[in-house]
Design goal:
The protein has 203 residues and is of the alpha+beta class. Helix content is 43%, strand content 21%. The longest helix has 47 residues.
C-alpha cells in the first residue's frame, strides 16, 4: 500500500514537471534575451554616447573657429566674450531663465555661433553649437520635409537648415541666401565639412 502511494506521488510529480517545463524554458529564454538587450544598450552608451564635458565643448568651439574649413567660404563673425541669452522660464519647462549651464547669470553659455560667408555667391552659413546635459548619440536628427509651401514660396528657397547631434552637442547648420535659391549641394557640402571635422577631432 505504501509502495502504491509512493508511485502515485512520483507520477504526479512527473506530470507537473512535464507541464511546467515548457513554461519555465520560455521564461528563461525571455530573461536571457532581455539581459542581452540591456547589455547591448549599455555597450552602445559606453562606446558612442559618452557625454562631452563643458570644458571640452568650449575647446571644440575654439578649435572649430581655427580649423573648420568650408569650401569657398571664410569666417566673417563668431560669438565673442560672454553672450547671455535671457528667456521666459516657462519656455524651458521651468528649468532655466538664462541659456547657461546652470540657468543662472554666469559665463557658461550653452550656445555659440560661427558665421561663414561664401565668396562666390555671398550666401551665409550659420553654425550653432548647442550644449546639452544628456547625450542623444551621433546622428542627423533634423532636415526639413518638403511641403507645397516650401516648394512654391521664394522665401523658403533662400533658406535651408539641418541639425546634427554629436553626443550631447547639437550642431545646427543654416544656409541663407540674399537673392537666389540655394542649391541643396551647398548645405550638403557644409554638413560634410562639419561631420568630417568631428570624425577626425580628438577630445
Amino acid at each position: 500500500m505504501i509502495q502504491l502511494q509512493s508511485m502515485s506521488m512520483q507520477i504526479i510529480k512527473f506530470k507537473f514537471c512535464r507541464r511546467t517545463l515548457p513554461l519555465f524554458l520560455v521564461i528563461l529564454v525571455a530573461l536571457t534575451v532581455s539581459s542581452c538587450d540591456v547589455k547591448s544598450h549599455d555597450e552602445v552608451l559606453k562606446n558612442d554616447e559618452l557625454p562631452i564635458s563643458y570644458n571640452q565643448y568650449r575647446s571644440l568651439f575654439d578649435n572649430m573657429i581655427k580649423e573648420l574649413k568650408i569650401a569657398d567660404s571664410e569666417i566673417t563673425e563668431k560669438t565673442d566674450n560672454v553672450n547671455l541669452v535671457a528667456i521666459d522660464k516657462e519656455a524651458s519647462f521651468g528649468k532655466r531663465s538664462i541659456l547657461t549651464l546652470t540657468g543662472e547669470q554666469t559665463n557658461q553659455e550653452t550656445q555659440e555661433r560661427i558665421i561663414y560667408t561664401n565668396k562666390k555667391n555671398e550666401n551665409l552659413a550659420l553654425i550653432d553649437l548647442i550644449y546639452l546635459h544628456s547625450s542623444v548619440g551621433k546622428d542627423m536628427i533634423f532636415l526639413p520635409a518638403s511641403t507645397e509651401t516650401s516648394r512654391e514660396n521664394p522665401f523658403f528657397q533662400k533658406f535651408n537648415e539641418c541639425i546634427l547631434s554629436y553626443n550631447n552637442i547639437l550642431i545646427k547648420i543654416t544656409i541663407i541666401s540674399n537673392d537666389k535659391p540655394i542649391e541643396f549641394q551647398e548645405l550638403n557640402r557644409t554638413v560634410n565639412s562639419v561631420t568630417t571635422f568631428l570624425e577626425q577631432y580628438k577630445f
